[in-house]
Each structure stands twice: as structure tokens, then as C-alpha cells.
Amino acid sequence: MSEDSTSPVAGPVVRPRRLRTTAALRRMVAETSLEARQLVLPLFVREGIDEPHPISSMPGVVQHSRSSLLAAVTEAAELGLGGVMLFGVPEAKDATGSGAIDPAGILNLAITDVVAEVGDALTVMSDLCLDEFTDHGHCGVLTADGRVDNDRTLEVYAEMARAQANAGVDMVGPSGMMDGQVAVIRQALDAAEHTDVSILAYSAKYASAFFGPFREAVGSSLQGDRRTYQQDPGNAVEGVREVLLDIEEGADLVMVKPALAYLDVIRRVRDAVDVPVVAYNVSGEYAMVEAAAAHGWIDREAAILETLLSIRRAGADVVLTYWAAEAARLLRA
Ligand code: PBG
Questions:
Q1: d(CA 214, ligand 1 centre) in Å
Q2: What whole-number distance in Å separates Cα of residue 95 and Cα of residue 80?
Q3: What CATH topology corresponds to 35-254?
Q4: Which of 148, 210, 211 to mutate to test the pocket of ligand 1 (most atoms within 8 A of CB)?
Q5: What does pLDDT average to over the chain?
Q6: What is the reported pTM?
């Protein structure tokens, strides 16, 4: 500080705090937006139930019945969400996941129900993967010695894509991490004249502990792990490679999953591509915040909005999150 009282007060000339003085000013200079249209709500629909069934490791999330699903998508449309991502939970599972390609399978029926209910008000997306439908819980069919058979799985994915497109889906989300899956699905869709059905490729998907609660959500008892097809959590360069390959194969949007432990991968991908980048704020990330909030250890609503804003800041244009509807309500308030 200056000793001379006639001279100006010594102190920092540059004061970043100046731009934080009022809420209006902070709003004006905010770098990152969070809007309902950027959020996609994942929804589970379970065959053979009349009432929604709670998922204990994901408090507030349920397995929907076919009718409760319609109420959920109507609300999602009213809130102005970007879309919904549908997951099916079949009553019976088998080795090849045959419920996935059956036009009367739960996911395909739900797609038709949802499209009839919301029309063009939402982008209706469906998970294109076998783990919800197989009795062993893997994302593909197995060889005689129990390995996941990449190329035979691709044949099933092609059929699954056709079934979902015939059911009326807008966008399919291949999440099985089989090599060549996007090319095979694009070809199958085009051959069936579904050229307008787009592909959201789960491109950089890691073998993650943060998928834990999802296993309960889809009633999956996975035997072993997914490390021969999902990526090693330490690999970021490879994540970009997977994304670039998927774009070459015809992906319209690419995804990084999970989100929070992979914010650097989201940023690398955003800087490397010219298609929309999507991030999946997964079940375990949801469960962590909910558990801490239930203990009173964290401000739940603030943590939700900060989480989603941070995933956007990292570079995701769109975020899949189980908080999509609630976040949209909070953003309105
Ligand atoms: C595979 C799939 C998974 C998730 C979405 N799609 C599970 C997995 O790959 O193990 C996880 C989503 C979440 O944890 O919220 N069909």
C-alpha cells in the first residue's frame, strides 16, 4: 500500500472479481450454457410389469412399465429435453439375446409406443446392444469357449438396427464396442431404406466401475468383465482413435462414456472432430451424488447442475443424464 494519501490506492489494476460483481454480469459473461435441449433422459422399460419398479442403487430412477413410460416421455417433451434413450428389460433372456431382434420384444414395442406418444417433439433414441437381452450379460454372442464373438455379433446388431428402425426410432445408439459396428449398422439401415435414422456411436466407452448400478437397472448378472471390448481407463489417445473410426464408418454423433472420470477425453474428442459430441453421465456417477446428498454431505441440486455444466464445459454438446428432467425443471426455476 502507498504511504502517500494523495496517490491512488495501490492494489491490483486487473481485478477479475469485477466481472463477478452482480448476478446479471456473471450471467452475461458466462462461457458455458446448460439448457434442457442439451439433455437426454435415459429410460428403462421392463416387460411384464404394471407399476414402475424402483432401482435401489439409483434412488429416484425406476424401471418403467409400458404405460408409465408414456407419462415419462410426455413430461420429457413438455420440459423441452433433447431426447430420450430407451433401454429394454426383457422377461426372458437367452444366449443370443433374441428378444432384441423380435419385433414384439419389449424395446421394439416401447419405441413404437413412445414415437406414437411424442411424435417429433423429442428425439427418440434406443440402445443398440445385447447385454440387456443375453443371459450371460455380455454385449455380444459368445464363441464355444466363451469369448465375445465380434463378427457374429455384428450380424445380430444389423438385425437389431433394422428392428428398431422398423419400430420407428429416430436414432440408434450402438453401445457394444464391437469393431466395425457402425459400418454394419449404417449399411443395414440404408439397405432397408432407413437412411434418415441416425447413429449415435458410443465410441470411446471404457470398462468402468461406474456402470455398476446400471446392472441392477437392466437386471444383468454379467459373467466376467467387459475388458476385451470396452477400453482401458488409462487410454485417451485410443479414445480419439475409436471416435475417428466411427465417424469414418458413418457415425452422426459420437459419445464418450462415462463422463466425469473422462472429462479430458471429452475435451480431446471435441477438439478432434466436427460432429456433435455426446457424453453419458452414467449410473455410478448419479449414485455417488445421490448417496452423498442422502447423507446431507452435499447440496444435491447445486451438485447436479455443477456436474452437468462441467461436462458441457469439457466439450460435450449433449449430455445423457438420469437428472435430465429434474435439471430442466431447476433451470426453469
Ligand atoms: C450397454 C450399456 C451400458 C450402459 C449403457 N449401455 C452398460 C455397460 O456397457 O456395461 C451403462 C449406463 C450407465 O451406467 O448408466 N448396453
A1: 6
A2: 39
A3: TIM Barrel (3.20.20)
A4: 211
A5: 96
A6: 0.96
